[in-house]
Amino acid sequence: MSVIGVDVGGTKIAAGLLGPDLRVVRSVVIPTPGGGMTIIDLIVGLVADLATDAPDEVRGVGVGLPATIDGVTGRVAHSVHTDMSDFDAMGPLEQRIGLPISLDNDANLAALAEHRLGAAHGMDTAVVLTVGTGVGGGIILGGQVFRGGRGHGAELGHIAVNADGPPCQGGCPGHGCLETMCSGTAITRDVRAFADANPGSAMGRRHAEGDLDSRTAREMAMQGDADAIACFATAGRWLGIGIASLANVFDPDVVVVGGGVSRARDLLLEPARHEYVRRALPPTTRAQVVGAALGLDAGFVGAAIMAHEAAGGRVP
User: Fold this and answer.
1) Angle at the Cα of 139 from the Cα atoms of 138 and 143, rounded to 5 degrees
2) Is residue 81 predicted with pLDDT exceeding 80?
3) Which of 45, 110, 114, 138 is the most exposed place for a label (fewest CB within 10 A)?
4) Each residue of 237-269: pLDDT tens digit?
5) What average pLDDT does this structure show over 205-231?
């Protein structure tokens, strides 16, 4: 049986068709619109388009949203990055798509994908962080995704790592959340602040041209720009502080870091590893901090796996 997975992020929607062997047959990425029913409309269109390439019957659709999902009612309880708080996504999707729909938090599904097919495969306990527009998180305990009492748990991007830090994004009331200190949004803020203070630097000139964000800063860092490297090192340090706390709580076998910002790889992960080992209790520093094996596909692959398992399928 084939399944379709859709991963809604703060800036993009990625969707893919997986065949009976859970290999990606086709995938597509489009920008994320404002939210609400506009997102529902796009999901319906993406599913219809992908289904035309299915080698056999499509048995289900999995959808990951950047939101907390109420495990009792199935409604979207809260979303920082889309206008979907207290929103019924399941009803319209089931009605319009006409297939079984499975719904979960996007980072939970990235964790599911990395556990079933990726960098956490075979591990009993794992922490997965997705560092993109925001920071999402998923936890594997006993080989299963941990969701908390009503499905609202594992919001790892909203653990506070700097009590006096900047206010968090969207509807989060926190300050200095992990998301506010090391996400793509945070890095964009920090590199632009550096550029404003140092207009003669390479980043200052790039900013004057109107072309400086976390993506261009990452490109500059990977080409050896020392100032850009330092900005990613700062973000990595904050990431490592968060990882240390998570390691102390969960004692994971592995910590997996994915998401768009993680494409900076060791520019981000090396300072994170250093800070994690320096701060965590010695017994919990056993976990390796590794990059996600499935890259930016993890979200929609996890969503498809959720639909596959909901239909009674097993992962090879």
Assistant:
1) 125
2) no
3) 45
4) 999 999 999 999 999 999 999 988 888 889 999
5) 95
pLDDT band of 222, cuts 50, 70, 90: very high
Helix 106-117 to helix 298-310 angle, to the nearest 10 degrees? 80
Same domain, 237 and 147: yes
CATH number, position 278: 3.30.420.40
Average pLDDT over residues 271-298: 95
What does pLDDT average to over the chain? 93
* pLDDT over threshold 90, residue 43: yes
Residues 286 and 301 in one domain: no
Q: Which amino acid belongs to residue 289? A: V
Count of domains forming the chain: 2
Residues 279 and 158 in one domain: yes
Which two structure tokens, joined as six digits, stand for 99? 């297939």
User: Which residues have a Cβ under 8 Å from the Cβ of 199 and sit 6 or more positions away?
Assistant: 205, 207, 208
**Is the domain of 249 the same as that of 304?**
no
Residue pair 304/3 in contact by the 8 Å Cβ criterion: yes
Q: Are residues 92 and 133 in the same domain?
A: no
- CA neighbor of 98 nearest in space, from 52, 63, 55, 47: 47
Cβ contacts of 111 within 8 Å, gap of 6 or more: 120, 126, 128, 137, 138, 139, 140, 145, 256, 302
CB count in 10 Å sphere of residue 28: 14
Give the type of residue at 34: G
Which residues are 255's β-sheet partners? Answer: 127, 289
Q: What is the mean pLDDT of residues 105-113?
A: 94
Per-residue model confidence (pLDDT) at position 86:
85
Residue 316 lies in a domain: no
Looking at the domain assignment, is residue 245 inside a domain?
Answer: yes
In the chain, the amino acid numbered 65 is L
The amino acid at 158? H
* Residues 252 and 306 placed together within one structural domain of the fold: no
Residue 316 pLDDT > 80, yes or no? no
Question: What's the domain range around 26?
Answer: 2-112+296-310
What is the pTM (predicted TM-score) of this model?
0.91
Tell whether 315 is covered by a domain: no
